Amino acid sequence: MKQIKTNKFVHDVNHLHAYFEKHDDLPPSYSPFTLDSHGCTLTHYLSRLSNPRILLDFLMTLKGFDVNIKQEGGRGFKGRNLGHWIMRNNCESLLTQEYGIEWEARTEDGSCTADYAAYSNNLSGLIFLEKIGSLKTEERNVYGCNLVHWWCLGGNDNLDVLEYLWTVDFRLFGEENYNGHTVVHKLAQRRNLKGLVWVLGREPKVEWGEDEGGLWASDLARLEGWGEGERLLKVEEEERGLYNKNDIDS
Q1: In the predicted model, is pLDDT for residue 247 greater than 90?
Q2: Which residues 6+ apart lie within 8 Å of 93 measured at CB?
Q3: In this structure, are 57 and 91 located in the same domain?
Q4: 243: domain CATH number?
Q5: What is the rounded distance in angstroms from the CA atom of residue 36 to the CA atom of residue 26?
Q6: Most-buried pick from 63, 134, 187, 238 (CB within 10 A)?
Q7: What is the distance between the alpha carbons of residues 5 and 38, in angstroms, rounded to a whole number?
């Protein structure tokens, strides 16, 4: 497939969308199977349009069109399908089973569409996946990250998804990824005070310990230069009787 620059490709997407809104013909030189420099086809950009169904309805009529075509590229991108992008971009108009989108598809590193919804604080996306039986809270990617880890990575300060995930399965909050990080470690790394205060106030208590490098959550906050988070976590560690051998004056 011919590769073209991303900015030109996105411009073409917007151009095509305008064509469909006016009920004009598709430009004869266009191919929906063209890859851009990120390994994406038009399918992967649909969720960025204001009315993606118009274009998707047309693409579904084309011979050889695959709504679940996977993105090419590096490990962080490879294997994403339209479902991943819908969740990433909070595209509610495509939260449907109508088009045969594989909602349980996984990327090359094992990340599912629900992970991307959590990352983007996409509550409607997660509720949709739960409704159709595709919210698999037990799934992990190659880094051992669960949905709560992904939420932390998104740097969110809206707690709607965090509260939702607690009601779905509060055990996720105490699980470690392969670095030994729980939600508390991740929130410390991201300097997320709002999320951290909320998590520390849950019952049953969320537990954490040393990560694979021997660091506690308070250590990670200190390494980030986040004094407020470090002090809060030190108090919590002391109150819970957790012994931090790295506890030094900073």
Answers
A1: no
A2: 51, 52, 53
A3: yes
A4: 1.25.40.20
A5: 19
A6: 187
A7: 8
